[in-house]
Amino acid sequence: MSDEQVLLELDARGASAAAGLRAYVDGLDLATTPPRRSRPRRGLLAAATLLVIALAAAAVWVARSDEGPKVKTVDHPSPLYLFPDHVPDGVPFRGSLDIGGSAGGIGPLGPAEVYATRDRADVLVTFTAKLGSGQITFPGGHPITVDGRPGTTSSAGNFRGVAFRSDADRVLSIAGRGPIADDIVHLAEHATTRADQVEFTDGVLPDDLERLGAVPLDRLALGTFFAGVGGLGEGRSLTWASEDAARSVVVVVQEAGPIDEQVLGLLDREVRHTSVAGHDAVVSRTAAQSNVDSRAVAWVQDGHLVRVVTRGYDAQEAVAVARSLHEISLAEYDRRAARVELPPGTRTIASGGEGAGRWQVSRDAGQNLCIDRGGDTSCDGPVDVGFIEVNDDARPTLVVGTGPPGSNVDVLDGSRSLLAADPLELDDDGLVYFAAEVPEGVTSVDVTVDDGQGTDRRTVRTDHGSISSTGGAGATTTSIP
Amino acid sequence: MAFLMSGDEPVPVPVRLERLEDFDAFYAANLRPVVALVFSLTGSRAAAEDVAQDAFAAAFRRWATVGTYDEPGAWVRRVAVNRAVSRHRKLASEGRALLRLAGRREDPAALEPADDEFWRSVRALPTRQAQVVALHYLEDRSVEDIAHLLGVAEPTVRVHLHRGRHELARKLGLDGEVGR
């Protein structure tokens, strides 16, 4: 077969595969409502480096009143910095993340309302989810109707649940444990939604059922996290993960809310209890969803919810990691958190910053230039002579670039102070790499790249949000949205 | 200038002021193609949906500007493609989407084995090659379009497309008789 024939056959395969993929996506039940809220950004967006992350902190709880939910802030405990002595072999450290302080959107899932009797014999959990249209299915569930509305009922562990479509794009879910579970369908028939909360007709709930509060759903299913929730408290996490992501270990420490300890692993399966450093801990297994099967160990310690979540390991390994955690100082935490193990062939260009502001610029084995900010890595490539401005909330915070072999590079702020003194020339591609952090208050940064045959000069205006360039091939002027 | 980025979100050039497009219509028209594009690069439905949502959320934040671009769809695709690159992001997206998808709905039939093999082979290409090849086959975009969308030079796209197609043919076993 000639080269031309091979490519013709490839094109035919490609056309078929494209049609197949489009048909597949056409059949998906996708969110019909456009995203109107900001997705997690900066600190929260940085969470995207993690396999599983809990971004919803429990520094708030919702107090019910006639006027609707109110948010009450809980006093912040002293920060707790934990680091494990033991992590399984073969999962390199991928980075740390500071969580919290963002006003990110709440995503499609509302918080879970938790009710219980004083002796905890009865537990009731309600939540709503904006899931768009389409059929609702639960593993092992049975179809039912709730006041004529389509739904499903299912059982998991000691819980019996009902989910039904309360309006066009919202699903209302109620799950109960104990005697109240027998009345779950009756309760569902008297449930309505108000904003993201589930409300019941007066007199339907048993008098001895006390409303404990509202928590992000991931507090109830410890191994399952979602990032589309506004983080209102403080926390931090550490991630180890194998290259193929089949195995990972995540340690998440967040401020705990008033009911965290009471709801640990409420929706998980195979829940058992153990002791970690003198604290009562819950060991759980989150129901497998696609190919994810997580084990979690969680407990409340010094006002913080501590979670060790593993993937690809058994519960014994998760507990071993949990028991190896010990408290260290902030300085020591930062020092250890900076020891990110880069993939083979990766060369570090520059790094700096602290805490959530940590950044690192590197070039990977695939000739991509990678920028890591607070654990959120973005790569682009292949590397070519050029210039990147890294913005954070529309303010340039990093200027990164690559000059021709042998270039002299100066990065100066408005007062002519040098920001990047040591450009790095990599021997394998000969290019000169540079990176500089733009300090707050600096209104402009001048970048000059001189390769001996010409000078490429660019100015980053932090007040106007624009780059202007003069000289050099490919000089471009553009605006930063 | 070889590339320009504003954080994760590429800075599209040129910018031409026009009447603002309606974001909802833009979302409705572009959501599925963007999900398909990210799926082709990640192989994960969860990641595809989440990355697409992220990209549209980014577009919404900047709609006053993005809505004036000649082709805001190219902008949102570039954001999505960039965000689909990172393996870590893909993993995070999968984790993030778990609860969203939990107990949600039945999946339509999976891809045909031959189609699945094709996209798996695309994903096995070097990152930029995979992006170029995906845009070429899935969206039937020209070299010029792809160059504009990815913010790279047209010759660069030609090289990636040439290498990517040949490597893809090799991975799919289509070139078994070449040179014999």
What are the segments of chain B in which pLDDT stays under 50 over at least 5 consecutive residues? 1-21, 87-108
Query: What is the name of the CATH topology of the largest domain in chain A?
Result: Phosphorylase Kinase, domain 1
CATH class of the largest domain in chain A: Alpha Beta
Number of strands of chain B: 2
Task: Say what the CATH topology of the largest domain in chain B is.
Answer: Rna Polymerase Sigma Factor, Chain: A
Share of β-strand residues of chain B: under 5%
Quaternary organisation? heterodimer
Main sheet specs of chain A: 7 strands, antiparallel
Mind telling me the CATH class of the largest domain in chain B? Mainly Alpha
Helix content of chain A: 10-25%
Strand order of the largest sheet of chain A: 4-14-15-19-18-17-16
Count of individual domains of chain A = 2
Terminal CA distance of chain A: 50 Å
Radius of gyration of chain A: 26 Å
- The fraction of residues assigned to DSSP E strands of chain A is 35-45%
Q: What number is the mean pLDDT of chain A?
A: 72
CATH architecture of the largest domain in chain B: Orthogonal Bundle
Unreliable stretches of chain A, pLDDT < 50, 5 or more residues?
37-74, 101-108, 225-233, 464-481
CATH superfamily of the largest domain in chain A: MucB/RseB, C-terminal domain
How is the main sheet of chain B built?
2 strands, antiparallel
Descriptive overview:
The complex is a heterodimer of chains A (481) and B (180). Chain A is mainly beta and 481 residues long. Chain A folds into 2 domains: 3-127 and 216-335, 2-Layer Sandwich (Phosphorylase Kinase, domain 1); 342-480, Immunoglobulin-like (Sandwich), CATH 2.60.40. In chain A, strands 4-14-15-19-18-17-16 form a 7-stranded antiparallel beta sheet, covered by helices on one side. In chain A, a hairpin with a 7-residue loop joins β32 (466-470) and β33. Chain A is 11% helix and 41% strand. Chain A has helices at 3-26, 184-189, 260-263, 315-323, 330-337, and strands at 60-63, 70-73, 82-84, 93-100, 112-116, 123-130, 142-146, 149-156, 159-165, 170-177, 191-194, 197-200, 210-215, 234-241, 248-255, 269-276, 279-285, 294-301, 304-311, 325-327, 347-352, 359-363, 369-373, 376-380, 386-392, 395-403, 408-413, 424-425, 432-437, 444-450, 455-461, 466-470, 478-479. In chain A, 47% of the residues are buried. Chain B starts with a strand and ends in a 9-residue tail after the last helix. Chain B has 2 domains: 14-102, Rna Polymerase Sigma Factor, Chain: A; 108-169, Orthogonal Bundle (Arc Repressor Mutant, subunit A), CATH 1.10.10.10. Chain B has a two-stranded antiparallel sheet. Helices cover 66% and strands 2% of the residues of chain B. Chain B has 180 residues and is mainly alpha-helical. Chain B has helices at 23-42, 45-61, 63-66, 72-85, 87-101, 113-123, 127-138, 143-150, 154-171, and strands spanning 5-6, 9-10.
